[in-house]
Amino acid sequence: MNYTQAIKEQKRVALETGKSFFELILISRMWNSLHGGVYAPVTEKLKPNPYLKTPMRDIHVNKDLTLTMINPAFMTRQLSEIAIEKRRIQFHITSLNPIRPENSPSEREKQYLKAFEKGIKEVGISTDRGSSFFYMGALTTEKTCLGCHAEQGYKQGDIRGGISITFPFTMDPPIFFLLMGHLMIGAAGLCCSIIFGSRLGKAYTTIQQQALIDALTEIPNRRSFMETISRELKRSHRLKKPLSIILCDIDNFKLYNDTYGHSRGDRCLKRIALGIKNTLTRPVDFCARYGGEEFVVLLPDTSMKGAGHVAEKICLSIHGMNIAHERSLPFKAVTISLGVSTLDGAAFLSSDELLKNADMALYKAKENGRNRVELFNSPVV
User: Fold this and answer.
1) Is residue 234 located within the same domain as residue 257?
2) What is the largest CA-CA distance in the chain?
């Protein structure tokens, strides 16, 4: 790499680093905006934002606690204070028509803000004799911004300002320093990713888990099951391997709730879910709450005979828990009925057809006295 190439590569890395910082700031602002602003306790260091015009800006909880709203712009300023103190990274939200005087642009920022209005989206230059890099990106007016900025005449889609970011970056062409610069910027980017992204990551993980896990029984839910069976059906068709499902239904569960109450009914459901899950021995075996008192088990690479054995184990396991149910005769204990359906690897069935077959077998198990297993078109004696 020659001198010119080294300089060009340094500028490219600096521009990408500035853009990464800018996008992380936008993600943080989006998170705040999606929640309609967030609240924090008023302290000596955190005072209410005098430029935020909303009747819900402050919430007085009691004489010792007042909460104040932090909107995206206020949060950006606070993050900037942390970044410059901890990492010597300075960013500034600004506009040609700012609400807050402190957000007025510098001469350099004013020049680029005018360029943004002509269609330019970002700029980046080396500053301080090559010891820092200045990046600035345009801010577009989103729908959630109109609460504060509509009265200034902005409409959705307008360029209403920008965010400038200044961070340490030495423009020194020797390769050793170039590589060191890469490492330092990477580390700074990682630290900022952790600072700005940790809460978003936790929130996303929580939402993702809530979407696929049943809140009561803490096993996968129906949505998770439908996604899993879709994948396994494709695999079964591709490899011509059998795929079995077991549809399970707690016997006389409505009578259980009527007799012992819904709170105890919930505890019963949790015990049944755990009992089914603990009966499965292979990592590929899958169980989920299908709805109400119904559960479903998915067994890849398992024949009808093998699935029947697993179903019998589940049936015996649940009966063996000895959960009292006085109105479930003749056993006077909680029991479960199960229907088994299998897709032969050479056949082609949809998930709906496979479930329908299992449901027919389950219905037959109920008709034949409950607390038993039935195979589709082949009753277990």
Assistant:
1) yes
2) 89
Q: Which residues contact 272 (CB under 8 A, 6 or more apart)?
A: 250, 295, 318, 334, 336
For residue 145, CA distances in Å to 56, 83, 148, 276, 323 come to: 16, 24, 6, 50, 57
Rounded alpha-carbon distances, angstroms, from residue 381 to 308, 325, 338, 372: 11, 25, 13, 9
Question: Is 356 within a domain?
Answer: yes
Tokens linked to 16:
């990408």
Distance of alpha carbon 344 from alpha carbon 363, whole angstroms: 22
Domain containing residue 262: CATH number? 3.30.70.270
- The tally of CA atoms less than 13 A away on the side-chain side of residue 339 is 23
* pLDDT tens-place values along the chain, 381 residues long: 556 677 777 788 888 888 898 888 888 888 888 888 899 898 988 888 888 878 888 889 998 899 999 888 888 888 877 877 766 788 888 988 888 888 899 999 999 999 988 888 999 888 877 778 899 999 888 776 666 666 667 788 888 889 998 888 776 655 555 556 556 766 766 766 666 666 655 655 555 555 789 989 999 999 999 999 999 999 999 999 999 999 999 999 999 999 999 999 999 999 999 999 999 999 999 999 998 999 999 999 999 999 999 999 999 999 999 999 999 988 999 999 999 999 987 778 899 999 999 999 999 999 999 999 999 984 433
Q: Is residue 120 part of a domain?
A: yes
State how many domains the chain has. 2
CA distances from residue 1 to 10, 13, 143, 184 in whole angstroms, order as listed:
12, 15, 47, 20
181: tokens are 């610069």
Query: Pairing state of beta strands 132-140 and 243-250?
Result: unpaired
Active site residue: 109, 232, 293, 374, which one? 293
Mark whether 116 and 239 lie in a shared domain: no
| Rounded CA separation 108/127 (Å) | 11
- What residues make up the domain containing 140? 3-36+71-212
Cβ 245 vs Cβ 302: under 8 Å:
no
To which residue do tokens 């709906």 refer? 352
For residue 370, what is the DSSP state? S
Asked about 293 being catalytic, the answer comes back as yes
d(CA 224, CA 212): 5
